[in-house]
């Protein structure tokens, strides 16, 4: 990983080659796409927004040429790259200019929320599109249900889930951008400021404007009806994606000060991976930390 980071910062040609090659490899191994966007973020963090934008632009042209040659669709391959690179560039640019990790991630929330709004503006009923995709994935179960299985209940749950898939996908994309930014910041710290990323991550704490907006979205999702409630719920899913990350940082920081920190951290991250129900309280911790400064309470308890 350190070698890749060093190579990306060797020069513009090397950065463009790495970004484009990783994008192509991600068509076979999708997680590699995070490395491609992290490389863009690293260039932006270290060399500035203009250089990052230049790398994106030339990489997009190169990707269009390769896409046209191999798959006969220049625009689709370049667009795929842009979807990965542009959000990573935005959050990295904000972090470089403001030196505020939370603000950078909140900028990512705004980008993801804009995507959700765009879907509703340009698509009459997004839920219909998601419902068709969900039914296609579950077609064998719907056509041949096991004894005692209620197809009607499953369809009802699919209808409900389809209404909020836009927000779920946007939140997932936000987490992907977050992972890319974290990786790029870790690379930068490894090369120029060892240990700096860990301190920055453990201090991650949201700002009140987004927190207040999140509470307003929660109220709207519960109080409104129809399309308004659906849109608010989808936007809320995006905001909560950020607060899951912030909540994990809070809990990690609190565990780091305890004697059994290694065991507790393994339990924490293991639960996040295998027990989806813990995401809600973790997000609540991240949201509450905006006003309560939970790390301060942890320090007071340990004093």
UniProtKB/TrEMBL annotation:
<feature type="transmembrane region" description="Helical">
    <location>
        <begin position="263"/>
        <end position="288"/>
    </location>
</feature>
<feature type="transmembrane region" description="Helical">
    <location>
        <begin position="102"/>
        <end position="122"/>
    </location>
</feature>
<keyword id="KW-1133">Transmembrane helix</keyword>
<keyword id="KW-0472">Membrane</keyword>
<protein>
    <recommendedName>
        <fullName>DUF2232 domain-containing protein</fullName>
    </recommendedName>
</protein>
<feature type="transmembrane region" description="Helical">
    <location>
        <begin position="25"/>
        <end position="45"/>
    </location>
</feature>
<feature type="transmembrane region" description="Helical">
    <location>
        <begin position="235"/>
        <end position="256"/>
    </location>
</feature>
<keyword id="KW-0812">Transmembrane</keyword>
<feature type="transmembrane region" description="Helical">
    <location>
        <begin position="208"/>
        <end position="229"/>
    </location>
</feature>
<feature type="transmembrane region" description="Helical">
    <location>
        <begin position="161"/>
        <end position="187"/>
    </location>
</feature>
<feature type="transmembrane region" description="Helical">
    <location>
        <begin position="52"/>
        <end position="71"/>
    </location>
</feature>
<feature type="transmembrane region" description="Helical">
    <location>
        <begin position="77"/>
        <end position="95"/>
    </location>
</feature>
């Amino acid at each position: 990983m350190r070698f890749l980071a060093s190579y990306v910062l060797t020069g513009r040609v090397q950065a463009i080659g790495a970004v484009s090659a990783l994008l192509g490899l991600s068509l076979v191994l999708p997680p590699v796409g995070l490395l491609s966007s992290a490389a863009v973020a690293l260039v932006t963090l270290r060399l500035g927004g203009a250089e990052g934008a230049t790398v994106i632009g030339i990489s997009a042209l190169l990707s269009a040429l390769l896409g046209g040659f191999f798959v006969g669709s220049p625009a689709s391959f370049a667009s795929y790259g842009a979807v990965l690179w542009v959000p990573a560039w935005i959050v990295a640019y904000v972090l470089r200019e403001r030196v505020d990790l939370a603000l950078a991630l909140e900028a990512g929330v705004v980008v993801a929320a804009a995507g959700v709004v765009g879907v509703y503006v340009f698509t009459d009923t997004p839920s219909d599109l998601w419902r068709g995709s969900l039914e296609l994935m579950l077609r064998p179960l719907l056509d041949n249900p096991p004894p005692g299985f209620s197809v009607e209940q499953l369809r009802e749950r699919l209808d409900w889930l389809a209404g909020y898939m836009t927000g779920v996908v946007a939140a997932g994309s936000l987490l992907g951008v977050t992972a890319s930014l974290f990786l790029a910041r870790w690379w930068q710290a490894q090369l120029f400021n060892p240990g700096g990323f860990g301190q920055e991550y453990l201090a991650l704490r949201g700002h009140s404007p987004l927190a207040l907006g999140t509470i307003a979205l929660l109220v709207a999702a519960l109080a409104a009806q129809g399309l308004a409630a659906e849109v608010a719920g989808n936007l809320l899913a995006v905001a909560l994606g950020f607060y899951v990350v912030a909540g994990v940082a809070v809990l990690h920081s609190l565990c780091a000060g305890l004697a059994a920190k290694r065991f507790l951290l393994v339990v924490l991250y293991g639960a996040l991976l295998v027990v989806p129900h813990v995401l809600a309280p973790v997000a609540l911790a991240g949201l509450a930390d905006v006003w309560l400064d939970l790390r301060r309470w942890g320090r007071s308890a340990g004093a």
